[in-house]
Amino acid sequence: MAKNATWYQKNFFWKRLRINRKYKDRLFRFLFRNKTDLLALYNAVNGSSYSDPERLEIVTLDDVIFMKMKNDLSFMISNQLNLYEHQSTYSPNMPLRGLIYFTHQYEGLLTRQDESLYGSKLLRLPTPAYIIFYNGRKEQPDRTELFLSDAFETGHGTGCLECRAVMFNINRGHNGELMEKCRRLWEYSEFIAEVNDNLDRNITLKTATVQAMDTCIQKGILTDILLSNRAEVPGMLLTEYDEKKHMRTLYREGYEDGFGKGEQAGFDRGEQHLLEQQVHKKLLRGKDAAAIADELEADVETVREILKKLSSDGSVK
After folding, report:
1. CB-based contact 301:311 (threshold 8 Å)
2. Nearest one of 165, 162, 117 to 143, comparing CA atoms
3. What is the CA radius of gyration of the chain?
4. CA–CA distance, 303 with 317 (Å, rounded to integer)
5. How many whole angstroms separate alpha carbon 276 and alpha carbon 292?
6. Which of 42, 69, 188, 266 could form a disulfide with 259 if both were Cys (CB 3.0 to 4.6 A apart)?
7. How far apart are CA 87 and CA 144, in angstroms?
């Protein structure tokens, strides 16, 4: 390992962090928890040919969840600090997330150094790299660059700060060369495509996932994961799947519910109904409003309002 990489690994503060075992793994993160697969993904993205998985150092922030941001994959290799995230919903705000993340990491590095930030010696920092793997339903090009400065009132390229995020579309049929270089990424893409094909038939996410698992096992896709983690995969997929987007598909026929041209109202009603069902299920498992809001990534006041409604309807005794 390069000399500077060793120095960074000794001085960064991630070594003392603990992983939150209550955190439910997302499928994408689970698939690349193995250093060999993660190194293959890194090589595919960067066109490199590293062969020793031990050169790669897994890192994390604040028990995996940092400021409600689920950092899928964060690792260090050869003087480069990498943040890899999976997204099923396009967001132009990813560069801002990256800026917050890297700033926090650098702040942690400085707190462990004796050198002054105002000293005459240049403080060496690992080079940041931010990659997003997108597989949402909205059509996107194979490769997109997102910039923090696009959010500035004065426009792209202005201001004294910049953070660049590179987004790869990993839906089936996109980035063929990248998929060829990393089989695990291709397998994930194929599995999600099977799930989405099933969802298009208006079946539940759980049923769509189970059927996709059976199909992929028959095709020899993700067999090592799907056979040994059959019970866990549906839950992991649920944490990363865009539930709201799925509900918009299910309620696309809003006219049938008497909303006529008020199609949006039908969508909103469907989303609210799903949230109420999820809140009720978790309440029956003994969860309080704060815990339910955290698990569903919902506003706690919204959850409390739903609990009041369920209580008044007699659903909660």
Report:
1. no
2. 165
3. 22
4. 17
5. 11
6. 266
7. 13
Q: CB within 8 A of 189, min separation 6: which ones?
A: 135, 170, 171, 172, 179
The answer to whether 57 touches 95, Cβ cutoff 8 Å, is no
Summarize pLDDT for 94-121 with one digit per residue, the tens: 999 999 989 888 887 777 666 677 778 8
Phi, psi of 273 (to 5 degrees): -65, -40
| Close Cβ partners of 140 (under 8 Å, ≥ 6 residues apart) | 90, 134, 167, 169
8 A C-beta contact, residue 64 and residue 22: no
**Which has the closest alpha carbon to 248: 273, 277, 271?**
271
* Residue found by looking up tokens 């590095």 in the block: 109
What are the tens digits of pLDDT across the range 134-188? Answer: 998 889 999 999 999 999 999 999 999 999 999 999 999 999 999 999 999 999 9
The CB density around residue 190, as the number of other CB atoms within 10 Å, is 18
What distances in angstroms separate CA 45 from CA 133, 178, 179, one per listed residue?
A: 11, 7, 10
**What is the pTM for the complete model shown?**
0.69
Cα–Cα distance, 227 to 241 (Å, whole number):
21
- Report DSSP letters for 240-280, one per residue: HS-HHHHHHHHTTTGGGGTTTT-HHHHHHHHHHHHHHHHHH
Residues 6+ apart with CB under 8 A from 59: 12, 14, 74, 75, 76, 81, 105
φ/ψ of residue 40, rounded to 5: -65, -40
